[in-house]
Amino acid sequence: MHLLIAEKTRFKHLTNFKAALLLLAIFACLFAAGCGKRKLPLPPVERVIQRANVSGGQQGNQIQLQWTMPPHKAGDKSILSIERIDVYRLAEPLDSSLSLTEEDFASRSTLIGSVPVKDEDYGKLLSYTDTLEFAGQAVRLRYALRFVNTSGQKAAFSNFLLIEPSERVALNPSGLKTVLDENAITISWAPPVKNINGTSPANILGFNVYRRKNGQPFAKLNSTPVTKNEYPDQFFDFGTRYEYLVRTVSLGGNAQPIESTSSEPVSITPKDTFAPSAPAAVTIAAAPGTISIFFATNPEKDIAGYKIYRSEDENLPKTEWKLLTPQLLQTNVFQDTNVEPGHKYFYYLIAVDKAGNLSEMSEVVSETAP
Q1: DSSP calls for 76-137
Q2: Which terminal residue of the chain has fewer beta carbons within 10 Å of its beta carbon, N or C?
Q3: Order of strands across the sheet with 82-92?
Q4: pLDDT tens digit string along 261-320?
Q5: What residues pair up with 130 in beta bridges, in sequence order?
Q6: 53/68 Cα distance (integer angstroms)
């Protein structure tokens, strides 16, 4: 009996032990399954755009830097907005090595300015102007910039922009004026007499003329430097507002052209008050029931059409002749079919441009209807 009770007790303990092992196995499987669903660690989120690409050059006593902002990632909370762009400059001897590490540049360069960034600046071209003070010693200037986000984190430096500024660059032109005629807006100016360092005569290779219309960016009009002190702009539209500025072009180091700073701009909104020329080479021919008039097309580009006048009395005042074209004639041929046989008819023409300007009268031609 005691043996039976001991055996039952051992079986009970064994059963409890197996149950515990089973529970441990179940928990192990659940834990392993949960671990299998865990994702791989994500890479660190980039908190600031890493690099900019800067370009530029010398204009007079200034270095103009420019770069394009990255597109704004609106709504992406993982990327902090750029708060400003810091601009750095290093002045180094001309014979120094062209290669330089970012660490050396960071330790030796000077922060010369910062450009604040607004929401509307993303994706646009921004610029910075560094005004130089020449000390008479030739140097090479090394520029770079870096983005700084709203947390104060700084990106890596941009590319290095290397410039060897020249002191013998002419000053900008002055006294811009415009003169309008039917075919061109002519811009004139007074050339400079000195260079930016005060020396004379001015180092003048020529001039570049820039124009913009309706507030758009300025664009250069000439392909090579203008050697005169005036420039005719023949490609314009009446009624459009234009602004012009001119820069002197000097011969810089390494035989490279360098522009001056810009002149004061001058603006004009050309108004068409110029009458077209009178229709010419007018000929006439008669056929039964029709008198045809032929004439040369006017040379002006803004001709809207022609008016044809007729009279049976050559001595009648021209203002009393009958208008045959209440709608402007669009071609250089007109057929008068309202004629009577045996009657003599006199004709003259007037050209009309798109601004409503009237030409002088053409010569009078006549023919008798057969």
Answers
A1: -TTSPPEEEEEEEEEEE-TTS-S---HHHHHHH-EEEEEEE--GGGTTSEEEEEEE----SS
A2: N
A3: 110-116, 82-92, 140-149, 161-163
A4: 999 999 999 999 999 999 999 999 999 999 999 999 999 988 999 999 999 999 999 999
A5: 63
A6: 7
